[in-house]
Design goal:
This protein is α+β, with helices and mostly antiparallel strands. The chain contains three helices and eight strands; from the N terminus they run E-E-E-E-H-E-E-E-E-H-H. The strands form two sheets. Strands 1-2-3-4 form a four-stranded antiparallel sheet. It is globular, with a radius of gyration of 19 Å. The N and C termini lie far apart (54 Å).
Length: 134
């Protein structure tokens, strides 16, 4: 069991699947868009302007939120860095932050590992083939 505060309300996160209001005992299925913005706001610097909020239920292998728990809210901010915050709808956890420099790093990491599908596997055919030929 984990105790968490979402937009000023206390909750219990039970067995990593049930979100229960600590005051009323009511089970909450998913957090709202407004609650997701409040969670993101607690983890971001002050003064950022939200320009869009989207609820995502799936991602591809090349999405910047790959392997993150879904569904999630994507909160986009008006900045030159194209900042996006990801918040889990199930438990209101701030999951990650993505920005322009991270996206460049991710691209360069993909070319470094030569894993053009998932980006995290060093054991692909190309390096093995080079080792075999040398």
């Amino acid at each position: 069991m984990e105790f968490k505060t979402i937009a000023g309300e206390p909750y219990y996160w039970i067995n990593q699947e049930i979100l229960r209001n600590a005051r009323t005992g009511e089970i909450k299925k998913n957090i709202s868009e407004a609650e997701a913005i409040a969670v993101a706001h607690q983890n971001m610097i002050d003064g950022l302007e939200v320009i869009q909020v989207e609820r995502i239920t799936s991602t591809g292998d090349h999405h910047e939120y790959r392997s993150g728990p879904l569904p999630a809210y994507v909160i986009s901010y008006k900045t030159p860095e194209n900042i996006r915050a990801y918040v889990s709808t199930a438990d209101g956890t701030f999951r990650t932050l993505r920005h322009r420099d991270w996206r460049w790093f991710d691209f360069l990491w993909m070319t470094h590992t030569m894993d053009y599908e998932g980006r995290d596997d060093f054991n692909n055919i190309f390096p093995s083939w080079i080792d075999y030929c040398s």
